[in-house]
Amino acid sequence: MSTLLKNVTNCIWHAFDSLQNNEVVHKSKLKVLTANIGTLLDLYGVEKGLDHFRSSQELTFDEFRYYLQHEVFSSLPKTVTLPVVREYEKKISEVCWFVCRKSLLSRDKPVFGDDSVFKLFRIFCLLADLVQDSEESSRYVVVLQPSEAGIVAEQLVLCLGLRWDAADWEALGSSIGHFKWAAFLAVLEAKYCCDHQHAEALVEAVDEIYDVFIEDIIKKGYLYKRGYLLPTMREYWCVLQPCALTYYKSSAQREQCGRVAIDEYCSVEAAPSAGDGKLQRFQLVTPERTFEFATQDHKSRLQWVSALRQGETRARLQSEVRARLAAEAQAQELAELSKKDSKKLEELKNAQAELERLLQEETQAKKDEEIVRALQARVLTEEWEKREELERLQEEQNRMLEEERLKRKQFEMLQAEKEAQFKEAERRLKELEEEKQRLDAELRAAQEKISQTEHNALALHVQLRDYPIFRNGERARRAISFVPTTKSSSDTLIDVKAIRHLKVLDDDSL
Questions:
Q1: pLDDT digit string (tens) for 44-65?
Q2: Residue 70: DSSP 8-state
Q3: Beta strands in 407-487, from DSSP E residues, in sequence order
Q4: Which residues contact 412 (CB under 8 A, 6 or more apart)?
Q5: The three-state (H, E, C) secondary structure of 192-208, written as one string
Q6: What is the DSSP letter of 69?
Q7: What is the pTM of this model?
């Protein structure tokens, strides 16, 4: 219910302002205030959502008001009767006053009692506006226009039986400008009530303007009412509001005896005199039944009839206002639905355009697909031809590979044979090398023997030359003489070779 939140926003701001520190309030404090407001509205557990609302542990007034609107007041029924709304406003105002009363009651010379100050506070919050502070744009203040503050002050002065000076108020209002709560209360107490000695008169004056501004009371006083079962006239204290006529046993208004609802279908008519001539009667006709009331004089009856007709008119106006508000709400809903429908229509148009675009793309894609399929068919035919050619080449390659494999096998066999021959040749070469080494060794040995033999032969030759050879005891000089002196060196070399050969033969024979 946005109307209820709007009517109590100023009270909630004063409670928030008394809790705030540097324009923010910790969630733990706001949870207590939210829980109390929810309990008054028969909503429980609404404060738990604050733990998950925003990431910070502190909230500004805008954030707290947003939470109240969407998490607390939005849970109330859309259609609530006016008395219920007024009761909600009163209870929420009392809770907010309990939070901020200490700071709002603080002043040097108090004149009004605490209850009267609370009633003036409700009047101030009802008429004031929540605006941004001129000094700090991020901060809110609740201020009362000078003209509206003048209306309250005028009503208070008139209720006290004093004379109202409009020119003086205009000068005061122009000097002060917008009235905050402290300035509003200070002006009422210091300027208009400080010289008034009767505290009861102040209380009655505040109650009277409270009834006018808050309770919206049109008229109140004693009336006679005919009973429903017993047709006797009994006196009651009656309070007339735009929507109801409530009657009590006394003016204290503590024990309610009944309530007559007044709407646009009610009417007020003059009742025939009963013959006694003491009471001036009139009737209040409702769709359910007819109520008969009476006053002691004709003037009072005219005043009450006029007040009841005024209440009837105001009830009709309120009914029209409610109907207009309902119509506006319905129109707003229809506008929202129309907006949603327009949005959906726009979305559908966009979707249709998108579908048409997709259809065109699909058609083009099909054409492209046909082209691609034709190309694929041609490519497939070429691929089959290439595949056949590849298969033929593969067969030829396999045949060539087979031939190559046979050739390689023959080559491997030939290579193995060559390797065997090579190994045999290596072995034979090794044997020949070993044989050569052996022959070389034998040759060296033979050469050594030949050298030794030559040496021995040379020695022997020398001995044979130097020593005579005896034969049968004779000196063989003649044998030496037979050796020709003309023997050349070559003949001597031949003899030496022959000796070497003989020596070799002798060694082999050994």
A1: 888 888 988 888 899 999 999 9
A2: I
A3: 470-471, 474-475
A4: none
A5: HHCCCCCHHHHHHHHHH
A6: I
A7: 0.61
